Amino acid sequence: MTFPAFASTQLDPRARGKELGTARRAAITANLAGYGDLFAAAGASPPQVRAWGERALERSAAWSPRLAEELAGIAAGAGLEPWQVAAVNARTEILAAVAATGEGECSTSVVLPGGGAAPRTVQTWDWHDHLREAPMLWELEPFPGHVVRTFTEAGVLAKIGVSTAGLGVHFNILRHRSDHAELGVPVHLIARRILDEAATVEEAAALARSATVSASTVITVVTGRAAASIEISPAGVAVIPNGPDGVLQHCNHFLDAALAEGERHATDRPSTYERLRHLSEHVEELGGEDPTGRARAMLSHGPEHAPVCAHPDLSQPIDQRWETLATIALDLPAARLRVHRGGPCQVTEETWQVF
């Protein structure tokens, strides 16, 4: 099983968005409906969601007019209102606004082996199982000669990805006590601008610091020379570089000491610490050249062990059900993604989708 893929042909942001919206209309509409169900289960009313979507669109337009144009184009192509597409892109912010909680989420490992060898990366992407049809792969050219390839959700501008500038990003959600309901720039748009515009860790961090946010996340940026986890929250932005051994690993809690004082996962999602311990105990395998070996090193199931590979508890409501929907490795020299549909327990040499 593979994820649907789409390659844009348009350079103009609005035209590119409309092309995607037209081609993926059914999937974008279904994703909007799925998020409507998730928002309702988490306690957000339809009028609140609309107000937050409109606010997210305003903040996006002020921070990046080009990306706001692309959102509007997607809406036009999909037959939706711009605020609806903005709400899907701002799903992290809306869930933070209602203080949504739950056990689950992603684990990321990066190893820089040195000696000119390419970075060795892998992450699990956990999300709610009723949204398992939302992911897609998207290739676009935001500027002439600059190609971005991203694993994202239908209608969302970016998530995990690589660019021909030699930069890649991994993506994990965070929760902080400073998160609030006055919606800011969606963190998924920050990931997209980093893929579009940055070639170094420093440039990526500057873009992250330029956005006023209302929700937290960590974008782990990788280049051939360096890596850093850029922890973003309304309380500030912190940059956690790779260690002297070239290792950088992140789950769903803050590593920066100052930001960690406002940590919410300490009580809401304690398994994040177990998952990070699992990664640190398997650095050798996670630093291997073979992406299948790296993915298998992520294999660990709860409740007996760290739940790196998640499977949903169908007895729970939809906002409390988590599944590892994808396992992803970055190939920076080729500017390609290796994507497996499902968790590490299902990975084989043949199940990788190269995009």
What do we call the CATH homologous superfamily of the largest domain? Penicillin V Acylase, Chain A
Helix segment tally: 13
| Residue fraction in strands | 15-25%
Unreliable stretches (pLDDT < 50, length at least 5) are: none
| Helical content band | 25-40%
Gross morphology is globular
What's the arrangement of strands in the largest beta sheet?
1-4-5-6-7-8-9-10
Overall average residue pLDDT: 96
CA radius of gyration? 18 Å
Order of helices and strands: EHHHHHHEEEEEEHHEEEEHHHHHEEE
CATH-scheme architecture of the largest domain = 4-Layer Sandwich
What CATH calls the topology of the largest domain is: Penicillin V Acylase, Chain A
Measured distance between first and last alpha carbons:
14 Å
Organism: Actinomadura luzonensis
Domain Peptidase C45 hydrolase: 122-336
Protein name: C45 family peptidase
What does this structure look like?
This protein has 355 residues and is of the alpha+beta class. It folds into 2 domains: 5-97, Arc Repressor Mutant, subunit A (Orthogonal Bundle); 107-354, Penicillin V Acylase, Chain A (4-Layer Sandwich). Helix content is 35%, strand content 23%. Strand 12 (323-331) and strand 13 form a beta hairpin. The longest helix is centred in the first third of the chain and has 18 residues, at 25-42. Residues 122-336 form the Peptidase C45 hydrolase domain. InterPro entries: C45_proenzyme-like (IPR047794), Peptidase_C45 (IPR047801), Peptidase_C45_hydrolase (IPR005079). This is C45 family peptidase.
